[in-house]
Amino acid sequence: MISDEFRRFQDTMDRMFEELWGVPAPGRLLLPPGERAIEKYERPFATIRKPFVDMVETDKEIIATAEMPGLEKEDIKINITEDKLEISAETRHVEEKQEKGYVYKERRSGSYFRAISLPSPVDSDNSKASYNNGVLEIKMPKTEIKKKTPVKVE
């Protein structure tokens, strides 16, 4: 029997893994009898690819360029907050040929995910993205850093 302390430790490690890498842990270290490791998640960890990203900061904007070949622009999802950029994509491709005496069928699928902390606050409402020849470019205008306002305790 697995003790409650070990279960809490496993839950803490799972949360840390997800916060650090942005994806669920590939399996659990401690499993009760009969529980499958990947049952909780739809896809195994190994299918998630991390796109290569270059980031350039200018006086007015941050430009992120990501290599994501083999996708349609409709497959790409981008989430931007003031200090974080998340890029994800899911792709599925089915090719089928039927000729005399045989059927050829090929299936490919995969996922991309990348979460990046931004070096400066950005204006997510006015950010723009374009995708051309497998390269995703995201332009994010910088915003002013909000000054801390001291509050007097009464």
Average per-residue pLDDT, rounded, comes to 79
Looking at the structure, what is the overall shape? flat
CATH architecture of the largest domain: Sandwich
Q: Alpha-carbon distance between the termini?
A: 53 Å
**Number of domains in the coordinates?**
2
Strand order of the largest sheet: 1-6-5-4
Q: How many H/I helical runs?
A: 1
Class from helix and strand fractions: mainly beta
Q: Helix-strand pattern, N to C?
A: HEEEEEEEE
By CATH reckoning, the class of the largest domain would read: Mainly Beta
Largest sheet: 4 strands, mixed
Kindly identify the CATH topology of the largest domain. Immunoglobulin-like
Question: Count of DSSP E strands?
Answer: 8
- Show unreliable segments: 33-46
Proportion of strand residues: 35-45%
Share of residues in helices: 10-25%
Radius of gyration: 21 Å
Secondary structure elements and their pairing?
Blueprint lengths: L3 H18 L26 E2 L3 E5 L3 E7 L8 E5 L3 E16 L2 E16 L10 E5 L2 E7 L13
Parallel strand pairs: 1-6
Antiparallel strand pairs: 2-3, 3-8, 4-5, 5-6, 7-8
How would you describe the overall organization of this protein?
The chain is mostly beta strands. The strands form two sheets. The protein has a four-stranded mixed β-sheet, with no helix packed on it. It is 12% helix and 41% strand. It contains one helix and eight strands, in the order H-E-E-E-E-E-E-E-E. The protein has two domains: 42 residues, no CATH class; 98 residues, Sandwich (Immunoglobulin-like), CATH 2.60.40.790. The chain is flat, with a radius of gyration of 21 Å.
